[in-house]
Predict the structure.
Amino acid sequence: MSLTLIVLLPFIGAVLPAIMIRAGRNACATATGSVTLLALILLMAKAPAVIAGEVFQVSYNWLPELGLNVTFFLDGLGLLFATLILGIGLLIIIYARFYLSKNDPMGRFYVFLLLFQGAMVGIVLSDNILLLLIFWELTSLSSFLLIGYWKHLPEGRQGARMALAVTGAGGLAMIAGMLIVGDIVGSYNLTDILANADLIQASPMYVPALVLILLGCFTKSAQFPFHFWLPHAMAAPTPVSAYLHSATMVKAGIFLMARMWPVLSGTPEWFYIVATAGLVTMVLGAWIAIFKHDLKGLLAYSTVSHLGLVTMLFGFGTPMAAVAGVFHIINHATFKAALFMTAGIVDHETGTRDIRRFGGLLNLMPIAGTIGIISAASMAGVIPFNGFLSKEMMLEEAWHTVWFDQNWLVPLLATIGAIFSVAYSFRFIFHVWLGKPRDENLPHHPHDPPFGMWAPPAFLTVLVVLIGLFPATIAGPLVAATSGAVIGGELPEYHLALWHGLTPALGMSAIALVLGALLLMRHAGLLSATANLSRPDAKSMFDCAMAKLVALSRFVSDNLHNGSLQRYLAIMVVSAVAIGVSGFYAKPDYLSGSRELLEVSPPAAIAWLLLVVTCIASVFMHHNRLLTLLLVGVIGLIVSLGFIYLSAPDLALTQISVEVVTVILMLLALNILPKETPKESLPGRKMRDGIVSIAAGLGIGGAIWAIMTRDLPNSISAYHLANSKTEGGGTNVVNVILVDFRGFDTFGEIIVLGIAALSIFALIETVTQGEAAKRLANWVVDNRRSADRHPMMMVVATRVMLPLSLMVGVYIFLRGHNEPGGGFIAGLVVSVALVMQYMASGFGWTQNRMKVNYHGMIGLGVIAAAITGVSAWVAGLPFLTSGFTHVHLPIVGEFELASAMGFDLGVFLTVVGAVMLALAKLSQVERMAEHVDVNLDPMDHDPSASVATPEKEA
Amino acid sequence: MEFLVASSIGLLTTCGTYLLLRGRTFPVVIGLALLSYAVNVFLFAMGRLTINMPPILRDGVTEYTDPLPQALVLTAIVISFGMTALIVVLSIRAYLEIGNDHVDGRPVGEPSEAGDKN
């Protein structure tokens, strides 16, 4: 439990700084620090047990179907990294309190920092690689926010984007690699994966997985050729550089290599990829660092170089090298974080980071100077500091390494790397702190910073010295526990000590110190000699590559997504056809099956012929919109007839009533819209569309032919038929399915219908504003009108029909559970009956008599359906479980009264409300366009009125 | 009979798709209507074709057509009415807002996409 808390604390605590900043900067920093301190204490409570060899584990199910569970485990390796993250994190929080100026939003800084901290702790404690990947991406994101913290600086923004692009791309590659590994092992748990090294290395997918995972590690840990983002990330505030880009985040890649070391290492592929990348990075980074004039730039490249060193050690693949790697991780974190903080102090106190302007700063800032000199000496590998110890171990391992049968190459290059490393470390010492001041006019007059700013690096420097002097006592247990976790087996024989006798490594160290010092003496000459060399500029290359990618994406999206609906629809139809065609060819037994076919009756053949003719006519005459609409009505009628013929009475009833309201709706629309479609498509376009549509039609027709000529496999329909009467209390199986078996679907559908009607309402309600209102105001009636707006015959007929049609509606509704009918159909029938009144007697007259609020009706319908569903809960049954009872009514006879009827009532109300709302709103636009007052009389000429007052007529 | 239904579905799809690809809103709406006929009948035909076997339970009758596709199609018909109504109103609103009924909202007089490409 407390293990989970260690991971969660920073995330939960991330809220605190945002709140506490109102109470002042000290309160904010204290709150942030206490969160980290608490997590650190929890961790330290477990440290003794872990060092003794115990492994803590905790597990919660999250998405077990995906193999993604929240599982954490704490072993030696996790302990080391978690200690670094939380410990150095705490120091950085203190340091940042004094580093950030009054103008910097400190609350935001600490929020980002804690988010990062949580993500980082998550990485090192995850036992599930999918969970690890989530945290991995979180570190990329929080690092992006932190690098770009000073968002007013273009370097900050660019550096943040570059870091995100590089580490994000690597992260994607790593996801693929991890998925492959998980697939090979059959589990995403690290503990399972670590136990199956043989399985993974024997798999043919080993090399792809290795390369993909290493891409993630190398980008994160800035290994060649992905090292270029790290120096640009130095645009971040120095606490961020010290924390993320030296001590923790860039070590995430190293951590993963260490974590996967037992599984992935030991093969030639691992050795040549990892060791070579590490070696090249180490030498190259160190070489570039010598020439950097920016204090943080120098440290950034030295970090690149040291990360290369550790990578190379893990790449060697021997247990001893792994121990050396682990030890160097500790040492590097201590001296490099101290160095970065010192650089921040210098920057803060002098106002510049240009090494060429420094010199003799030790006299002005003795405390910071001492810290800087000791840490830099450790970085150079000077006795007796901790950097010396691990560098000795590295050289010792390099001495024994044979690269492509060349036993001299790795030792030589390692020594060269060490020489460069000495050169830039000494440069940091001699050009900054010692010698004479070179620039008397520094922006500020430097002096030692406040205690809070120098205490954190001083603490680390004390560690640098103590580990150097008493390595076995101070760091020994941690190194042993960590190395044991990395190697996953017996530890090799090793001694952490300053003196190992006269070894080759000692010789190489001595050579490095002497030659490095000599190199620095020649620094000025070297600078001018290399000044004119053309170096590849990573940033311009990166920018160029990004610009090309952006151009490519823009090209693709501009062509696919050019704002033309015609283009989108064409692409969608063509893709659908292409997918269908590929499916046809993938399994070429798609045509005729062996099912016995129905005979063609003459009426069916006639209907089919009519359908074919109307379909074709509707395409060829589609420029005449009114005619097309009539043709579509005919097609709808034939489809309804087809439903009746093919044993689907409910569908036929629904289709025909929907047909009526649809045609009315379209007629209303055509009143406003142009009556003709202009002939504007060119022949080529028509040809293209024709070919695409014919292909689509052939595909769909072929598919359904193939289906219909085969027998129906066993489906769930038999269940519905068998249980409709007994469980749902109805003999109309279709209706029982709608209101009972699949009532939840229907519930969703009436909600959709209601939302559609409300959207129509919203679209029309706002038509009185802007351009639309102007156009409506200037509307000219563009078609001939009937002289008799409300013919008397029609008014009388519809008036007589109304009670009859309503009665039919009620009848259809009531019998729906047992005979064809039900809420949907009844709703449509009643809507048609009401619409007839509107059409015949005019909107105004009808509206005055229809006091129904259609919005309310839709809402009432949905609520009625919901209440029916919820009432099942009262009986302790699941949502929408229906009950029924037999009722005997005089005249009507015996029928089942099912609770589903309440649900059907909801459907009915929603359908009526939605249809009527849509049509009523549409007719509102018409009335606005026609500038005619709403008629309040039922008909234009009222005969009764003229009979009553014959004198006036005369 | 199966051939008649299959060919009708295919024809409705062809005509619907062709109208769907036109440049004005009204043919597109009509095309969608034709396509929804095609889709509804397609779904219905998934339950295979039968005559005189409506899924209304009767004593002594054991053979019924498949009720499930019918139930699905019934709601589909009503929903597609709702959607048709919505896009009809949307096209009216668009027509009133921009003064023409081109699906891309292009002011009258500008060359159509067909003119650009062909």
User: Anything to note?
Assistant: Residues 732-944 of chain A form one domain. The CA atoms of residues 248 and 794 of chain A lie 84 Å apart. The radius of gyration of chain A is 40 Å. Strands of chain A lie at 56-63, 68-74, 884-889, 893-898.
